[in-house]
Write a structure and sequence with these properties.
By secondary structure, the chain is α/β, with parallel strands linked by helices. The chain has helices at about 20-30, 45-55, 75-85, 105-125, 135-145, 160-170, 185-190, 230-240, 245-260, and strands at about 5-10, 30-35, 60, 90-100, 125-130, 150-155, 175, 200-205. It has a single domain (about 5-260), classed as TIM Barrel (Alpha-Beta Barrel). Strand 5 (about 125-130), helix 5 (about 135-145) and strand 6 (about 150-155) form a beta-alpha-beta unit. The mean pLDDT is about 95.
Length: about 270
């Protein structure tokens, strides 16, 4: 089984002590390639550095998460554009809107989102999107770029049925995480994932966040890591009523095409 984790925050400081071991455990569990999420001015360059260090295994995104939207200055925009000149950076983002936390003012979020969509419109790279409690504004801003953007994935989808079908109506992709395994908050996802067309479905851990709550045994530090993608794909396959190997193969093929990755790891 060959899996691709399309969203792992491997630059997070919780991985500083054992990052190489984390990557080895991922490989041991069939996760052969990973997209390292760049979500701020600090961590997007770190994501690129990791991807260059592990060529063919790790790839990077570069962007500014809505939580950090206040840092999106003209200088920041120039930095993002320079990062996207590197082939190891395979998507624009993580970018979007988050009105659940409001860690950055909403006008700043919208401006940062629009600036990053402009980058994607110019360079043609896929979009790695975030949306939480901001669906209406999110859709309106994306609509302003109709016909100008490449493929898009709404990462870590946790939303409603209506939101899901709005995204699918735009031919966007959907990223499913271990939220699916949360009996408190993710139960509705188990009913929704069968409706996602196979050619629009990808999987991710969002490590070190969103540790699947039904893991057994649980890691003592409660840290999520890419090795647990194998558990997520098993849960997803069960909810979709299809063989695990089929779900694994299809999500891997979709991610390979979406991010324009080599067909196999080269390192």
């Amino acid at each position: 089984m060959e899996l691709i984790d399309i969203g792992a925050n491997l630059t997070h400081d919780s991985f500083d002590r054992d990052r190489d071991a984390v990557l080895q455990r991922a490989r041991d569990h069939g996760v052969t390639r990973m997209i390292v999420t760049g979500a701020s001015r600090e961590h997007s360059p770190k994501a690129l550095a990791l991807a260059r260090q592990h060529s063919g295994v790790l790839f990077a995104t570069a962007g500014v998460h809505p939580h950090h939207a206040v840092e999106y200055t003209e200088e920041c925009d120039s930095e993002m554009r320079m990062l996207h000149a590197h082939p190891e950076v395979v998507a624009v983002g993580e970018c979007g809107l988050d009105y659940f936390r409001d860690f950055s003012p909403r006008p700043a979020q919208r401006k940062a989102f629009e600036r990053q969509l402009q980058i994607a419109a110019e360079n043609g790279k896929p979009l790695f999107l975030h949306q939480r409690d901001a669906h209406s504004d999110f859709m309106a801003i994306m609509k302003n770029f109709d016909g100008r953007l490449g493929p898009s994935v709404v990462h870590c989808f946790t939303g409603t049925r209506d939101e899901l079908f709005d995204y699918l109506d735009q031919d966007w992709h959907i990223g499913i995480t271990g939220w699916l395994c949360d009996e408190r908050r993710g139960r509705h996802l188990r009913e929704l994932v069968p409706h996602i067309p196979a050619q629009r479905l990808m999987i991710e851990t969002d490590a070190p966040y969103l540790l699947p709550r039904n893991l057994s045994p649980m890691p003592s530090d409660r840290r999520n890591e890419p090795m647990y993608l194998a558990h997520i794909v098993e849960e997803l396959a069960r909810d979709r009523n299809e063989p695990v190997m089929q779900t694994a193969a299809r999500t891997t093929a979709v991610a390979t095409e979406f991010f324009r990755l080599p067909t196999a790891a080269t390192a």
